[in-house]
C-alpha cells in the first residue's frame, strides 16, 4: 500500500450527479508521522476543487432505460476520477455511489435496476474497489444524509479533535447541522445530557476511531422532513392558493415582486400562452413580503398532531433543543438564499435575522422591471439571474419561518442573546479556533473546504481503516443506540482488501498459514485427482505407469548408488528425471549461468506514490497481473529515477516489453536454446528416431 489512500464518492442528487475525490494518509504512516496531540485526532482528509465534477441530469431519469446510465452518465464521471487518482492506487480505492431524494421517488424495481447497472458498469470498466455493491451503491435515507452532514460539520469545525476549544457549556462541544434541498430538509444534533437520557431510544449511536486507535462515541438525533425543501414547499404553497380561489384566473401572490406574472409552475407568462388567454390561472406578484411570511407559516404544519412529544414540524418528534449549547450551521439553501443573493449587501456579516429580513423586504417590494435592470447590471452579484430573483422572495420567507418559527432558533438582532456574540465573517474563518457562538450560521466552506455530507461519509470510512488497539474494540459505524453492535448497525463500506494482499509473493501464506486445517484437505484433493486420472488412463497405460512407479522407487535398478535412485520421487516431481540434465544455452552459445533476471523489490509499501505529482510505479493485485520488473544496466546507464521519465513497464516476462529492452522469455532465443542444448549434448549430431535420448525425451513420454 502506498503512502496515500483515496476514496471516490458519486453524490447522485435529483438534478445531477457530482463526483468527489478525497485522499488521506494510510493509517500506519499517519500514526508514525503524527505528533502527540494529533494522535487523538481523526484522519486528515484532503480534497481539491479540481477533483470535483458535476453533470446533469440525475440518475433517476434512467429509471426506464437503466442500461444507458453507463455510457451516457457514469463514463464521464469515472473518467474524471481516473484522471486524478494515481493509476497504481485505483485497485485500492473504494468507489461509492450514494443517491438521495431523486432516486427515492422511483419504484423499488426501477431503483434496483439502476443501481445494479451502476455497479456492473463500474466493475466492468474500472478497477475501483467495490467489494459489496449493496453498501457501496445505494439509495440512502434522509437521516443518513443528515448524519453524514453532521460528521462533516463537526470535522471541519474541530468539534471532534479539540473539544476544549469548542466548549459551549454543560460539557457540550459539538455543533448541530441543518440542510435544505429542493425536496427535503434535515436536522442533526447531539441533545444535552438531560434530553439525551430522556430520549435515548430516538438517538443514533455513532462510533469513530482516532489515529491512535482510540474509540470516539457520539449519540446524535437525526430526522428528515420530506416535502419541506424549498421546491416542494413552493408547490404546496401554490396548491393552497389555487384551492382558495378555484374560479379566479389571476391570483395575487405576495411572495413575488410587484408586477411579475408567472404560471402556476413559476415560469414567466409568454404571449399567446393559455395563461395570457385566460384558459389557465396565473400568479400576479404584489411584492408584500410581510404578507408572504404570514401565508407561508401554515406550511410548517405546526398544528399537526404530535404523537411523541415534543415536535417541531409536521408532527415529527424532535428532542427539545437547548440553544445555550446547541449551535447550528446550515448548508445548501440556507447558504444560497441568505448569502449569495445579497452578498454585496452584507458580505462581511454572518446571518443576522434583522438585517436579512430588512434586505429581503426592500428587494421584494421593488417593481419587477426595476429588478430586471438591477440583475442586468449585476447589482446583487453575478450569481443572481432572473430565475434566482424570481424565486428569492418565497425562499427567503420559507427559510425564515423554518428557522425561527419551526425549529425555534432565536432571532439574532432582535431577541436578546446571552454573552457577547461575534457575528463577523472573521468568526467563520477562525471556526476551528473559536467556534461558532451564534445559534445559527449559514456556511458554504470552512477552511476552504466545502461542507458536504460526502465529506462526512469519507471521514467515517477513513476512520474505519484505522487499526484498533485490541481485538475487542467495537467496529466503526452507526446504528441504534443500544450497547454493543445492534442489528441495524451500518459499517462504512465493504471489507477492504488491499491489492497487494493477493500478490503472488505471499500466495503460500494465504493458502496454508491462515488456516492449518486447509493442508489435509488440499492433500486429499490432490490424491483424489490423481486417482481419477489413473483410472481414466486405460489398462495398458495404467500398467505402464505402475511399472514406472516401481522403477522410480529403485526396484528396477541394480545400481543402488546411482543418481537415478538418489533423485527418486522428488526428482521426478521437480523435473529431475532419468533423462540427462540439459544445460540451457543462449543463442550466442553462452551458458545459462551468465544470464540473470533483474531483481525485484518485493516491498509492498510504495513511497513513490506520495503525491499525484510523483512517480506512479506500483504493484497491482492478482497472480495473473503483469508485475513491475527492471533490467540490470551498465554502471554508466541512467536509472529510471535519474532520467526522470514517467514510464511504467508492464508485461515483462510475458513477451510484451519493447524489443531490445528486456529479455523475452518467449522470444526466438529461448526456443532455439532448447534445440541447441540437445544437439550439443549429442555431440553436434541430431537425434535419430531410434536413439535412446529421443526415446527418453519428456515430450515423447507425453505422447505415449
From TrEMBL:
The chain crosses the membrane at residues 519-538. ATP binds at residues 182-186. It comes from the Eukaryota. GO terms for molecular function: ATP binding; GDP phosphatase activity; ribonucleoside triphosphate phosphatase activity; UDP phosphatase activity. Residues 690-704 have a biased composition (Low complexity). One of its GO terms (biological process) is UDP catabolic process. This is Nucleoside diphosphatase. It comes from Melanomma pulvis-pyrius CBS 109.77.
